[in-house]
Amino acid sequence: MSRTGALDDSEIQTEMNKMVAFISQEAREKAREIQVKADEEFAIEKAKIVRQESLSIDSQYEKKKKQAEVGWKISQSTAINNSRIKVLRSRNDHLENIFEEANKQVKELSEGDKYKEAVENLVLEVLLKLLSTNITITHRPKDEDLIKKASQSALKRYKDLSGRETKISFDKGLNDGSSGGIIGSSMNGKIKVDNTLEERLKILEEKMLPELRHDLFGANENRKFYTVSLISDTVL
Q: Which residues form a coiled coil (predicted)?
């Protein structure tokens, strides 16, 4: 049986309560949907931010790592170069000490008994190199008598070897404080042969230097090309 007519107050209240309950349920469901969507968007945005920051941190780390590696390599290279420089200086000092000692021995030679024979050979070498009819021998003033005697012997040997004769004049132009030896010249000094002991020692030092380095310090690992020493059969 259907009912007609207006609703009484209790029925109106019941209907109102139903409508309020329906609206509340709809609101709660809508709120849950909004919350779920907000949580999803938050999670996505959070993951995006975390990833960006992670990439940024990784990039900064790699940059700092590379800077640290470069700095370490520079420090290592500097340390190695400084070490090499110290080694080279030490080797150079050692060689200079050897040459200094050799120079002392050369000076001792110029004051000893073997000096006359050495001077004779030096004069003979000058004669053979210049092959001139007139030669000037420059020497230390204190060696004057010795030089003249040695020159006479050298002239005889020169004639036996070359069949030539030459005239020698003498000049006391070397310092008595030098290591001795002679300088031969011809054509008014235009052609010279420096046979002073200092110059001979200098030439010998230059020729012997590679061999000395090899004997004292071993083969150079960085050297790619080698020459045969003119002083000995040692390969450098």
A: 85-112
